[in-house]
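Appendix B. Raw example, untouched.
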Amino acid sequence: MNYVEKLDAALEAAVRKSINDTHSLGLLFSGGLDSSLLAKICADIGVQPTLVSVYMEGSRDESVARDAASFFDLEHVEKVIFEDEIEAYVKHVSEAASTGDILDISIGVPLYAGLETASFAGLESVMCGQGADELFAGYHRYLNMEVEQLESELKKDVETINIARDRSIASAHGIMLLTPYLDESVVELGLQIPVSLKIKSGVRKYVLREVAKNRGLPKSIWSREKKAIQYSTGVDKRVKKIIKKGV
C-alpha cells in the first residue's frame, strides 16, 4: 500500500471515529481541498453533514465555497460577516479563547462566526480541517525550505497547533469540535510521509491532493490553491485595526 492509499484509509478511519455517537453533524466548509475532502469522505461512507461556510462581505470566498458545495448533495448554510460586526466578534473571541493575540483572534473570528451559525442551525458537532496545512505543507512559507528544515518545521508546527483556542470557541457555543486531520493515527502517518510527497514540483499538499483526486473530487477543487481564511476573507486587517484601537 502506497502513501496515498495509507493516508486515504487513515483519514476515513479518523472521520468514522470522530463522528461516532454524534447526531446533528456540521462541517466548516471553505470549498478548499481540506474541507472538501472531508465532505467527500463523509458522503462516501453515507454520512450527510451540513456544510457551514463563512464569508467576509465582498469576499471571493463566497463564490468558491458555493461552487464547491454544488458538487455535494448536502445542506449548505452560510454566514456573511459584515464590517460592522467585526468589533463584536473580536470581543467574543478574545473572551472565549482568553487571548489578545492578533493571529489567534484573526483565525478565531471566522471560526466563531461559523460555529455560531452551526449552533443556530441546531448542530451539535462540527468537523473542521484544522491540521491539514501543518501536516501536509500547505503554507506558502514552506516552499523554499530545504528537506531537513521543512521536516523540522512541519513537526514543530503540528506540535504547536492551538487547538485549545478552537475548542474553547466551540465550547462557547455548546458544540463539540471534530478534527480528523489531528487524529493520532493521521498525525503519526502524516509525519512519516516524505516531504517530497508533500511539496512536489512546487505543488503544496501534493499527497493530500492525490487522495482527493482518487476519491473523485473534481480538479477545480483538488487543484485549488487557497489562502488561510483570515487572509482570504480580509479579517486579519480589520482585526489588527480594532486591536490597535484598544478594543
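End of appendix B.
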